[in-house]
Amino acid sequence: MSSLEININQLNCRVECSLFKYWTMLDEINNFSSHFESGKIYALVGKGWNGGWALSYFLTGRSEANERCYDSVYVNGEKANSLLFRKIACYIGEGVSEHPFQSRTRYRNKFTRKLFGIKTVAEQIQQGILYSNNRYSYEDVAAMFELTGVYEHDERNGRVHRPLAYQGNEIWRASMAIGFAYGKKVYAAPLMMPNKDWLNYIIGDYNRRYIELLRSHNSIIIIPVHNDQQVKNWADEIIYL
Predict the structure, then answer these.
(1) pLDDT tens, residue by residue, 95-139
(2) Which long-range contacts (CB under 8 A, 24 or more apart) does 22-26 make?
(3) Which end of the chain is more exposed for a tag (fewer CB within 10 A), N or C?
(4) pTM score, whole prediction
(5) Cα dist. 54→58, 119, 214 in Å?
(6) If phi over 0 gives left and psi between -120 and 50 gives alpha, with beta otherwise, what is residue 74?
(7) At CB < 8 A and 24+ separation, what contacts does 8-12 make?
(8) Which CATH number fits domain 1-96+184-241: 3.40.50.300, 3.60.40.10, 3.30.420.40, 3.30.450.40?
(9) Max CA distance (Å), the chain
(10) Contact at 8 Å (CB) between 187 and 208?
(11) Confidence (pLDDT) at 96
C-alpha cells in the first residue's frame, strides 16, 4: 500500500487513550469528518480534551473496544477496522511491536524481558526490516533517526539496545524508526501537553526533521496540539476540532 487516502465521515467515538500505561485519559470526538492523504503532516488543534488524542489513538488501531466506530472510516475506499490500522500505522511513543503495551514491571531486567518477549529497539527495527522487506538496513534506519549506541553491544553503553520504554528523550524518534522499519504509512502522536517538556521533544526544531523524513517517504503524520502556534509554518494542514 504505497499511497493512502483516509476518509472519515461523521465519526463519534469515546476512547480511553494511554501512553505506556502510565498516563491514561478518556477523550471523545464527535461529528468529525475529514480527509487525510499520503505525504502530509496534519495538526489537530483543540483546547482541552476535545478529540485530538482520541483520533490519533483511534487511527493507529489501538481502540478495539470501539470497533463499530470504524464504520465511519474508509482507507483507499475500503471500510477500515482496527486490525487494518495496526498493520499500516505507528503510534508515536510506543511503536508497533508490543500491543497492548505491557506493564513496566515486566521490564525490570533482561530475564523478565526475555520471559515476556519484550524486545529492544534494535531488535524491533531488525524484526521490522525482515517483516516488511525494507530496502534499508538496520544501520541505515538507525542513522536516519540518529539513534545512539548502534555499534555498542549492551544496553549500558548503547541506548538502542534497551527496550523502547527506557529510551528517555530519544523515545519519540526511536518509535518513529521502528515504524519506519516496519514500513508503516500512518504515524500519529499522543496529545502533547503544553506544560510538559515532551512537547518540545516531539515537535521541537530537533525532532521535526524526523517527522519531515516520514513525510518525504509518503507517510501521513497526525499530531494533536493545543494551539496552532505550535505547528505554524510546518504542518501542511491544520484541522480545528
Answers:
(1) 776 655 566 666 667 777 777 778 889 999 999 999 999 999 999
(2) 22/104, 23/190, 25/49, 25/53, 25/191
(3) N
(4) 0.91
(5) 6, 27, 22
(6) beta
(7) 8/32, 8/33, 8/34, 8/35, 8/36, 8/72, 8/73, 8/74, 9/33, 9/72, 9/73, 9/74, 10/72, 11/55, 11/58, 11/69, 11/72, 11/73, 12/69, 12/72
(8) 3.40.50.300
(9) 50
(10) no
(11) 79
**Residue type for 227, please?**
N
Altogether, the residues listed in the chain come to a count of 241
Cell for 119?
524486545
